[in-house]
Amino acid sequence: MKEPTFSMTDISSLAASTDAVILVGGKGTRLRPLTNSIPKPMLPVAGYPFLQHLLARIRAAGMTHVVLGTSFKAEVFEEFFGDGSELGLEIEYVVEDEPLGTGGGIRNVYDHLRHDRVMVFNGDVLGGTDLNAVLQTHVDHDAEVTLHLLQVADPRAFGCVPTDADGRVSAFLEKTEDPPTDQINAGCYVFQREIIAEIPAGKPVSVEREVFPALLDRGARVFGHVDQAYWRDLGTPADFVRGSSDLVRGIAPSPLVDGRHGESLVDPSAAVAGGALLLGGTVVGRGTEIGGGARVDTSVVLDGVVIEAGATVERCVIAAGARIGARAHLCDAVIGEGAVIGARCELNGGARVWPGVQIPDGGLRFSSDI
What we know:
The chain is of the alpha/beta class. The chain folds into two domains: 11-236, Spore Coat Polysaccharide Biosynthesis Protein SpsA, Chain A (Alpha-Beta Complex); 263-359, 3 Solenoid (UDP N-Acetylglucosamine Acyltransferase, domain 1). It is 20% helix and 26% strand. The strands form six sheets. The chain has a seven-stranded mixed sheet, sandwiched between helices. Strands 12-15-18-21-24-27 form a six-stranded parallel sheet, with helices on one face. Helix 4 crosses helix 7 (207-217). Keywords: Initiation factor, Nucleotidyltransferase, Protein biosynthesis, Transferase.
């Protein structure tokens, strides 16, 4: 029987009777060395672990039961979030001993589900779609699976998901130079629980390449919820920095930073000297010191960092305990924990410095006029 349409007054009951599942098992190799010791979803973004922003959005939508599908450094998640009660949530943890892929990861949490409807999130994605609207679309169409589909200006770099006039998904297409639609898979799904039960257990399965095409082949009710909401995969340093900046500036939504938007987000314990410029949605962590005349633009500066006088840091991630010397210039770089970049050094264009590495004063210059 088709479920009734929910009004705004009872939409919270729709969310409350939906499980939230977040897949956070990846190793985050594209963000190394930041992820050498920290799972990607636990990296600080706009002053909080990235995953906490997603959990806050889930709670704001009205969902309260969350299952995390973990693998790499699984213990870190439970140590930080515990049972979720401080966030107004009930959080359970399910560990993959071997990588199971997206479909296998969803199937792996099946025994922990409480409801007949499950909303699945990719733990790498910073999104802004209306979660209640996605749930409403699912119920309105009596769907077995609903996908959040994003309209993008250039879909050629993505697999495309066309839908018919009723919103029913008609195909899953690989990347092509001539895509028939601007709709791409945004990595957020609503499943009826019985569909998850059909995924083979204990083996790697791709939900995109195996589960969804098989559902279409058998005529299952698979629908799309299409919008143009904020969306960014934080898998690369450039996207990680941009996502953090967008949160600080209010371009990307998060209940955790509501009312605190601006050009920078500075922890109260940080020390910023006179004449220093913080721009572009820069984040400055606990106990960090920024010297006079330094310029930090569109960057993520974590805890206990020292940026000396006159240094320039643009579109960078500076990990905890690192030191950037006076008049050093860093652009599009990732600096690992405890690393030291000497005075007057110059690092550009994707440079990555591993934790603990020390570059002496004037020891490295990389620029077009060297």
